[in-house]
Amino acid sequence: MKFQFMNPDELKAKLEAGEAAVVVDIRDPASFSAGSIKGSQPLNNDNVQLFVEQTDKTQPVVVCCYHGNSSQSAAQFLAEQGFSDVYSLQGGYELWKTVCPEHCN
C-alpha cells in the first residue's frame, strides 16, 4: 500500500463539501498550537499507536507537516499500518496557510 499526494485546493474542496477526512498534523506541539488546519489533530510518537488502533482504516487520512516533506514518510507508515486512503499534503502547513487561511485555527 502506498500513500498519495493531495494539494491544498483538493483538501479545501473535500472539507468544504463536508467529506469525512481525518487530518493529522505531525509538526511539533508549539507549531500546532500556533496555527493548524481547522479540525486537524496532532499526531506524534506518543499517540500514534493509539491512533492506529482506534481510527477507521477505511476513512481518508491526510498527513500535514511543515512543507510536505516529513509527511511523506508518516503517510507511508500509516499506509503500511493498513490505512487504505492516505495522503501527504503537498506544501504542508506553510502552503496551506497562504492558500486556505480561512481554514486555519
Map the helices and strands.
Layout: E1 4-6, H1 8-16, E2 22-25, H2 29-34, E3 41-42, H3 48-54, E4 61-64, H4 70-80, E5 86-89, H5 92-99
Parallel strand pairs: 1-5, 2-3, 2-4, 4-5
Task: Characterise the protein shown here.
With 105 residues, this protein is of the alpha/beta class. The protein has a single domain, classed as Oxidized Rhodanese, domain 1 (3-Layer(aba) Sandwich), CATH 3.40.250.10. It has helices at residues 8-16, 29-34, 48-54, 70-80, 92-99; strands at residues 4-6, 22-25, 41-42, 61-64, 86-89. It has a five-stranded parallel β-sheet. Helix 2 links the parallel strand 2 (22-25) and strand 3 (41-42). The termini are far apart. 33% of the residues are buried. The model has no long low-confidence stretch (mean pLDDT 95).
